[in-house]
Fold each of these.
Amino acid sequence: MVKALIAGTIRADHALPTGIALLRKGKSAIDAVEATVRLVEDNEDDWTVGLGGLPNLLGEVELDASIMDGKTLRAGAVAGIKHYKNPISIARKVMEETPHILLVGEGAELFARVMGFQETPLLTQTARDIHQDFLQKKGIVKYPYDTEDTLKLKERYYKSFQHLVKDEKLMSWYRRYVETTHGTVNVLAVDKEQHICCGVSTSGLSFKFPGRAGDSPVIGAGNYADDRYGAAACVGTGELVIRLSLARIAVYELSKGATVEEAATTAISSLRDLLPDKGSVSIIVLDKAGNVCGACNWQDYYFWVATEDNPKPQKQKCIFVDLKSEVNGVGYHR
């Protein structure tokens, strides 16, 4: 019999104990996923999800999220949320209270208000400072609130858009920036009743074009769950993930009898179909037996897993898939 399990990307490690505690008490996978993702969304020190997420080019934070129930194949998603910090919960309401799957922009916000969600300013002082320094080409600026970790994170972001700071043409820079910058939280769970749920939340590409939505709210691309086979969720260059319907590819591979390792590497190997277009993508795959694997096309990336028997989250390394090699997976051939 499959025991309760929850897995998440590196941004979810501090929140997974809450999710596994709920699962051990007999709560549903949906409850565990939502609660876990909410904690990540509430973390102001995470600049890629929820409250504290970095803004678009106009200085506005736009949040996307989706959740999918593997028991019923029902799903809910929102995109372009500007005034509510927990889009994962709004997405769940879309799934459970409406006949729809995806609500965007003003419509999604109206729905959130009707459902009783409280408006919250999303742009923190840290995110505002980073945005202004970016526009004014100041480079990395140290503020009194900065720590060694935040300075390292700033350095990573500024390296990603240093071409713009050097007056490169906007679209030329923007294309390169999109290829290397990403941040999303994925959480997948299986409960004691052997039902599966998958949730994804993000503030999207930092300094993105206003209105841009990536793969996170797109069911089949950034998120997919099916009790019969398993679930998958993605982090990375959303445009590539959407073009391939990457999460669905992984679950389809599971349906054919592939292991989680095979499904994950096959999904990432499918990026070869889009070459020479570039981008970084990671996927986590969970099967109905409770096996979990991650794969990505860059090295040294990890995810976390907590189980009913071992509730302390354990760090696991993703399989590196070298897209220049045919060794790792065969890809999804059309």
Amino acid sequence: MKRDRNVKIVATLGPASDTYEMIRALHEAGADVFRLNMSHGSHEEIAERHKMIRQVEKDLDSPIAILADLQGPKLRVGTFAKGEETLEWGEAFRLDLDPAEGDHRRVNLPHPEIFAALEVGAHLLVNDGKIRLRVEECGADFANCTVVTGGVISNRKGVNVPDVVLPLAALSEKDRKDLAFVAELGVDWLALSFVQRAEDVQEARDLCQGRAAILSKIEKPAAVKAFDEILDASDGIMVARGDLGVELPVQNVPPIQKRLVRKCRMAAKPVIVATQMLESMIESPMPTRAEVSDVATAIYEGTDAIMLSAESAAGEYPIEAVETMDNVAREVESDPTYTEIIEASRVVRRTSVADGIVSAAREIAETTNIKVICCFTSSGTTAALVARERPRVPIIAMTSLRGTARRLSLTWGTYCVMTGELERFKQAVVNAARAARAGGFAGDNDQIAVTAGVPFNIPGTTNILRVAPCDERLIYSTDPE
């Protein structure tokens, strides 16, 4: 489905968007990717949502990416005899392995791996950081702490440990079962939570066995420190600002977001900016001005995609939330300042023939009457390299592989078109011109740039660039041998 914008929109499905009609309406309103949150819903419910998305895709003849987001290990305190307690600043509070119900002095923390990694001076954050504890003394089964930030602590509240790398696998037993299920079901992207190191990504990749692309969620300080290695091991990145904003001072998150987005762009790997983008639209039909500015900032940074979570999954105005993102994106991208920022932040990389081809395609398109860049791709790499250039003209990604078209739905600026397998470059040029005309990108007297790799259907062989006319008589009088 043709969009009048380059940035992509990811919408999370949930109780508010659990019907074929709603999923179709969300896609027509602007959602390019649908996220299945494995933290909520049974396998039967996930399978039904997957089925409905694929039906929408078929009915609208529009490739749609499906992103399955694994829950990751959840660290929580135990229970309290009274259900909750109030912790005051400066008080002593103990966390331990004793399963007895807690009180105002202690509570069970059933995670020996946390105690194994703790050091004196480390901090533990409870209930999304509302309560902050500093470790004064610790051992294999306890941590004596001082309350730095007090508040109400209640049963099974989440715990974050920002100061240390925990000896925990990114994949819990539930995650492994969910991964096997969604990989067999046929999702396009797999989002990995609790990533701390590149080895976490490799473990998921080994289990996935090529059935889905791996997207790493950056939500822990350890992941920020090891980002270059994690990026190299991943197919894409999600800047998950929720936990990141809990475990780091909130003022650190915006520069980290900007830095990670630029690194992903340089690596030609898609990046999603996520969490609380239009949070108020869970209950309100209108966003706040601050939220609109937040969405706009991510777009100005050149992110590939922006994401809705509870806004589309459980909110009262899911369609309006997607429409708002779409409107903001189109307005930002029509701003001359947007083009200036994107081009000023472009880093030209020409370390391969493919780099040179896509860079030349962008430069030719910006200095001549080129209306669109058409790239033929089997793995999606060529389209990703063209998107890295952030050209001023649209990108048509042409592929014979449905899975590639779906995965590219997450990549900046790509309009995906299915085509048959090709044997000759002449055939590719004719098919590209026809797709440009059919999509309304070009007409008579217009020209297009076509990139491809010969021989065809071999990943990483981009080696041809041609400027071709879109004249209707020439296209339809030509026999694409």
